[in-house]
Design goal:
CATH topology: TIM Barrel
Shape: globular
CATH architecture: Alpha-Beta Barrel
Bound molecules: 1-deoxynojirimycin
Radius of gyration: 21 Å
Distance between the termini: 15 Å
Strand order of the largest sheet: 2-3-4-5-6-8-12-13
């Protein structure tokens, strides 16, 4: 694991925080008027989620709000990034408002503010109201209108207390896993649907940003994109080109329209569908997206990727790379994801290479020097447990975080305008299709009882926040 040669101090106004998302922690899925979302439906469909786990109870955050707020304060968190559950406040996605749902978020936001913690809510972290799904969901443009209605409601209610808003979390994941390969809700495998949703999600970002800018006086709007630096595993022209295509699929196809550009034209299966006249992109759409450029960009980063061109796969295998054509990331695309068989990995199977974080930050900052950046997610999945003394010791997570926070500091030293780091995650939680098996939290959650136990990484991160540095003393 890389270590910085000297302690890396972060700017005094650098924002340190933690991240969560509604469906992953709240529970209370059918309480106080909440309507179902596509994740309720998906997780209750046999075979979709490991062990048949659901978010019905999750960490029971809905009922343990005060205790969790106290833990955030104990950590010294300056920022809490969380998401609103759309169907808790608008049970059928539009129309009738559920006042009890709004009151829950009043309590959350007020509880943060009284503890001196800045709330940064996300409007959409994958939990589309089921009622909207039944009307066509994200494949239908009417969902974009419903999203604008929801954004207006939330802006009007909380805009006096919240200025930084994230519209959408990880459009690539929700589009690609949800509609191209069916691993996430709503579980479809249809390239045309994926291309349509990809576009409608960007329209929703723009419509949501416009609604917030109209209702919140000092609105500052971001979007959270999942990113990885993507390296060619072999130094050949074909694999270098493949890495470029993979990056365009993962990042450029979102970031370019969001910042005033067009869709890439090199993505097999997708680019033709985004051509004007092909029925998805209407005249004026790209201008509408560009008009609501984000004020800042959030990056969720966990690991870099390595790819090869299909014709280089056998050579790569001889050199110790492991990979199969047609793995989920690559279906229908001219690149293949590979890893070193011996590379250290988290329980998600993700390689641990902190330099990937520095490299992606530098790359995006060079492309968009005027966009302030935040790391809105980064963290380590383990198989943590309570030992006989009741402690949750997670030295591997500390090691991961130390390397990645140091890489973020190095990016700042490289000139990147990086404003904050929000660790994923505050609590162990429902890891989507993987259920409760991977534990990402710095607080251990005993699911049968709900008991919270801060892990050793919690104390370590508290030290980082207090000293604004890694590589110093115990940090
Ligand atoms: C991305 C998502 O935003 C979050 O919901 C998920 O739990 C983490 N990454 C880890 O996979």
């Amino acid at each position: 694991m890389e270590q910085p040669p000297t302690p890396l101090p972060f700017p005094a106004d650098f924002a340190w925080g933690v991240s969560t998302a509604a469906y992953q922690i709240e529970g209370a899925a059918a309480e106080d008027g909440r309507g179902p979302s596509i994740w309720d439906t998906f997780s209750h469909t046999p075979g979709r989620v490991r062990h048949g786990d659901t978010g019905d109870v999750a960490t029971d955050h809905y009922h343990r709000l005060d205790e969790d707020l106290d833990l955030l304060a104990d950590l010294g968190a300056q920022v809490y990034r969380f998401s609103f559950s759309w169907s808790r406040v608008l049970p059928t996605g539009r129309g009738d408002v559920n006042e009890k749902g709004l009151e829950f978020y009043d309590r959350l936001i007020d509880g943060l503010l009284t503890r001196g913690i800045r709330p940064i809510p996300t409007l959409y972290h994958w939990d589309l109201p089921q009622a909207l799904e039944e009307e066509g969901g994200w494949e239908s443009r009417s969902t974009v209108d419903a999203f604008a209605e929801y954004a207006t409601l939330m802006g009007a209610r909380y805009g006096d207390r919240v200025s930084m808003w994230t519209t959408i979390n990880e459009p690539w994941v929700l589009t690609y896993l949800g509609y191209a390969i069916g691993a996430h809700a709503p579980g479809k495998s249809d390239t045309t649907a994926a291309a349509r949703v990809h576009h409608n999600i960007l329209l929703a970002h723009a419509a949501g940003a416009a609604a917030l800018r109209a209702t919140v006086t000092d609105a500052s709007i971001g979007i959270a994109l999942n990113m990885s630096e993507i390296y060619p595993a072999l130094d050949t022209p074909a694999s270098t080109e493949a890495a470029g295509i993979a990056f365009d699929q993962l990042v450029t196809s979102y970031l370019s329209p969001l910042t005033g550009g067009a869709y890439p034209t090199n993505l097999m299966g997708y680019s033709a569908l985004w051509a004007e006249g092909a029925g998805i992109v209407a005249p004026g759409d790209l201008a509408a997206i560009a008009a609501e450029r984000p004020d800042w960009l959030s990056i969720n980063e966990y690991h870099p990727r390595y790819v090869v061109a299909p014709e280089d796969l056998s050579t790569a295998r001889l050199e110790g790379w492991v990979g199969e054509p047609g793995t989920p990331f690559t279906i229908g695309q001219p690149f293949i994801d590979v890893t070193r068989g011996s590379a250290p990995k988290t329980v998600m199977g993700w390689i641990i290479e902190p330099h990937g974080l520095r490299d992606i930050l530098v790359r995006i900052s060079r492309q968009h020097p005027d966009l302030p950046l935040y790391i809105s997610e980064n963290g380590y999945a383990g198989a943590d447990f309570l030992d006989q003394s009741g402690a949750a010791k997670d030295p591997e997570r500390i090691e991961y975080l130390r390397g990645h926070i140091a890489a973020a500091g190095q990016a700042i030293a490289d000139g990147v305008d990086l404003r904050g780091y929000f660790l994923w995650s505050f609590l162990d939680n429902f890891e989507w299709a993987e259920g409760y098996l991977p534990r990402f939290g710095i607080v251990y959650v005993d699911y049968p009882t709900g008991l919270r136990t801060p892990k050793s990484s919690f104390d370590w991160y508290r030290g980082v926040i207090a000293s604004k540095a890694v590589g110093r003393g115990d940090n």
